[in-house]
Amino acid sequence: MGYYTRYTLEVEYPTEMSRRLYELAIRAETTSYDYSLGDLMDDQTDTIKWYDWEKEMIAFSLKYPNVLFVMTGVGEEHPDVWRAWIRNGRSVSTKATFTFETPKLEVVLPLREDVEQIQRNKIAEERAKLMKALETLKEIEG
User: I want to staple 39 with a disulfide (CB 3.0 to 4.6 A). Which of 44, 65, 104, 111 is the partner?
Assistant: First the structure.
């Protein structure tokens, strides 16, 4: 069977020389699946089993000095999302972390100022009913 991942690639080039190298590189076949960098960058690949992606991209980066390759992978199992940066034969990667941004609740879900007063009024009404019932009981027993 195997594990499928969707790969996408971004390329950054800090100098004119590395930009020209990149223009050559984008046409080059880079993977064991015969995808070009252009295919990966344009999201023209499907999910694939590319177990040697890091080794191949490290080797590829040696051919194009100072070009920064940024590979993002989204695996078939949640939450397998990662990003790797490859340049000059070296690679560093990190897994994605997911956070939730808390909205400004005081704006979108404001407190109702009248709720507490309404609750106090209901409690007072219930208390008055209980007191009246208690007085009635005392009169009956009495």
Answer: 44
Under the banding of pLDDT at 50, 70 and 90, the label for residue 7 is confident
Q: How far is CA 26 from the centre of its chain?
A: 28
Closest CA to 6 of 46, 55, 54: 46
> What tokens appear for 77 in the block?
């199992």
Residue with tokens 């005392």: 138
**Are residues 88 and 117 both part of a single domain?**
no
Query: Considering Cα of 52, then 54, then 59, then 60, what sign does the dihedral take?
Result: positive
Q: Does residue 60 fall inside a structural domain?
A: yes
Tokens (6 digits) for 34: 């015969």
Q: What is the pLDDT of residues 43-57, one digit of tens each?
A: 666 788 888 889 989
- 133: containing domain: 105-141
